[in-house]
Write a structure and sequence with these properties.
By secondary structure, the protein is of the alpha/beta class. The protein has 14 helices and 13 strands. It folds into three domains: 48-158, no CATH class; 180-280 and 304-355, 3-Layer(aba) Sandwich (Rossmann fold); 361-414, no CATH class. α3 (59-68) crosses α4 (139-158) and α12 packs across α13 (377-386).
Length: 415
């Protein structure tokens, strides 16, 4: 090889030596042309700061909420329509690409990336937002992040949303919260429950001084159709709290802990039909002999845990153990309270219990007058006595059918 190079350089093969010289010169020129670009990138990296948030993080939605509150959005001319932020109301946010804005007197650039990636299964759109600003002091970025978090919390306190877990918390766009006035309970029950909730929310400092975990549990139990879920939706809307609905039949201990870690403060954690938990076996009573359970072989633990679902110990751990979130309200609903393990019902886990049973005459009469405001109190009570519906859901179905009959009759009369 060295002999060949020496021959080429000695000019014994002028064509080859000339080509080699051109290659060397071209390589040197190409390298020299890259120096300004590399120098520019080095200067940018040393004089700016960047922060990125991906769509798999809950903060991605917070940033989009923050965009809607910024004045510079009016000057952006490349926009996307988004219905995930304000339900049926269309919201406009910056479209994929690069945008520029000023925060105070500091320039910011934001890159909105969107791509289609195909994994093991259907394709999923991947999105991310990258912010860049001039400077090296990371306190600027911390302040920027605090502003986004404050914007989210301000919205979170005044509006009630519903979230479900699907490899991350997802907002249910079609959710419409119930109004507290529309939920009819026996006299005093609704007022007493609301007073207890408000008293808890005003007692954070007292809990801290006493060294007691700051969360409270509520158990709503009774036959189906008595309005348990509607009551949760109504008081969450009244207090401006969002609901995080947990479906234990689709989780195991690991995914439950992960889900709890991402629940923000000031939220309602709803466990519906807790008696249907697949692995909610009772604990062994003192003095009883515990039957030995087969131990999973190495490498099988994840599969076994997925089949078992959420265990009782895993559930108790997120209610008042190391993985329990702070400043939340736990609500459990059940049709069969006797099917629950006593460990779930003790104070500190379930602090307030409300039985929602058969519909009382006063409840049915009040609901009747909501459907037919012109009816007298006596007429409403007489109708309630004659139609002995077991639950408010059944009685409401009767009223809806009756209202439809009246509407059809009125149409025939007018015709």
């Amino acid at each position: 090889m060295r002999e060949l190079v020496r021959q080429l350089m000695a000019g014994q093969n002028q064509f080859a030596s000339g080509g080699l010289v051109l290659v060397l010169i071209g390589g040197a020129v190409a390298w020299l042309r890259q120096i300004p670009s590399q120098l520019w990138h080095w200067i940018v990296s040393q004089s700016t700061m960047t922060i990125t948030v991906k769509d798999e993080d809950v903060a991605f939605r917070w940033v989009k909420e923050w965009f809607l509150e910024q004045k510079f959005l009016k000057r952006v001319r490349w926009l996307d329509l988004d219905t995930t932020l304000r339900g049926a109301e269309l919201a406009m946010i910056p479209a994929p690409g690069r945008h520029r804005f000023f925060r105070g007197r500091r320039p910011f650039w934001v890159w909105f990336y969107r791509s289609e990636e195909t994994k093991a299964g259907p394709s999923r759109r991947m999105e991310s937002l990258t912010f860049r600003t001039i400077g090296r002091d990371t306190r600027v970025l911390r302040e920027f992040v605090r502003e986004i978090v404050a914007c989210h919390h301000s919205k979170h306190r005044v509006a009630s949303y519903l979230y479900v877990y699907n490899d991350g918390w997802e907002c249910v766009d079609a959710y419409s919260p119930r109004l507290l006035e529309s939920v009819l309970l026996k006299p005093g029950e609704k007022e007493h429950l609301l007073a207890d909730l408000q008293r808890f929310r005003a007692s954070r400092e007292r809990y801290r001084k006493l060294g007691v975990p700051y969360h409270r549990g509520y158990l709503l139990y009774g036959p189906p159709g008595t309005g348990k879920t509607s009551l949760v939706s109504a008081f969450a809307e009244k207090l401006g709290m969002s609901i995080y609905a947990v479906n234990l039949t689709e989780m195991n201990d690991r995914t439950l802990k992960t889900a709890m870690n991402w629940i923000p403060e000031g939220s309602v954690v709803l466990f519906e039909d807790i008696d249907c938990m697949r692995a909610g076996h009772r604990r062994q009573s003192p003095g009883t002999e515990e039957k030995p359970q087969p131990v999973a072989a190495a490498g099988q633990n994840d599969a076994v845990a997925a089949m078992l679902g959420v265990t009782l110990s895993g559930l108790l751990n997120v209610l008042d153990g190391f993985h329990a979130p702070e400043n939340v309200i736990f609500v459990m609903t059940t049709n069969d309270v006797d099917a629950l393990d006593p460990a779930l019902l003790r104070p500190g886990r379930m602090d307030y219990k409300l039985f929602m049973g058969r519909a009382a005459e006063s409840q049915k009469a009040e609901l009747y007058r909501r459907f037919f405001p012109e009816a007298s109190e006596e007429a409403a009570r007489e109708f309630a006595r004659e139609h002995r519906a077991e639950t408010m859901a059944e009685f409401q179905g009767l009223l809806i059918a009756l209202e439809q009959e009246f509407a059809e009759l009125e149409t025939l009369v007018r015709g």
